[in-house]
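Hi there, hope your week has been kind to you so far. Would you mind checking whether the tokens look sensible for this chain? I owe you a coffee for this, so here goes:
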Amino acid sequence: RLSLVGSEMCIRDRPGMMAQFAIAGLIGAAEIIVQERKSGALERLQSTTVSNSAILTGHWLAIFIMIFLQFIIMIIFGQIFLRLNFFAAPIATLLLSIGSCAFVASLGLLIGILAKMPEQTAVFALIPMFIFSGLGGAWMPLEMLGETVQKVAQFIPLSYIILGYKDILLRGAGLTQTVIPILILFGFSALFFLPAALIFKRQNK
């Protein structure tokens, strides 16, 4: 029984830690955008035939690939060494990972565009990391928190990352059962990407 409880706690903690460290890792990625703007590299790039949309998409893809590789490494580690059966539903796991990384990449893009100084990227990344982790169930299961926090968690992206992976690992859910968290994560990705694109366009008129 103790082994079962420990396994369930590991299943609850792993997705939350994956997302938390992914957001923390945005500090360096977002700082690149700030440094490009300060050094004039972004201005020189815009003087070429490359469009602002292509520049924005390129930065987003770079962040996405970095975070996605982190997720893949942690999933493989969990599968092999922690015996967490992510591969029981490979399509659901893949799409949930893509949705999670899309949200984190869009958040990182917004942070990089909003930050004026490299030091600000750390603040802008750590604040949402702590808020999303604390209220999204990464530090403590939502079932153990109050009803108010559980209601707030419905608006926290990390709660859907944890919910989706928990359904796969604990309940053997497939794509049909995890489609709602996946779609919500893509929705959060668009929610952060759109203001990033608008601000970027306004800054570079």
Notes: The longest helix spans residues 52-81.
